[in-house]
Specification:
By secondary structure, this protein is mainly α. The protein has four helices and no strands. This is Multicomponent Na+:H+ antiporter subunit G.
Length: 121
Amino acid sequence: MSWTALADGIAAACLVTGALLALVAAIGVLRFPDVLTRMHSATKPQVLGLLLILVGLGFRLRDPGTIGLLAMVALFQLVTSPIASHMVGRASFRAGQVRRDLLVVDELTDLLADERPREGD
């Protein structure tokens, strides 16, 4: 078995697994009941699926310039996705669009109560 055949096999496995994870993320966004669970589904399996697709593309294309570009895409995705999901979750919590009956731990309500201006201030 040659190196190129092995790399193509790894690429195919990564591409299929990444596509399946992206599909699971899309189904989760449609099926989950509230913003926080949808946000979880939109970030975790989708980011892992994208990373697997990028790894699969790297194994398939095998060009150093392309691999560098794919690494930059992965880095930017890993940097922006947690920040964006945090901001969406916090904004939806402040807007009252979170189902509190589904929360196991709620630490943000106390923090938001401390930030609100009190009467007479």
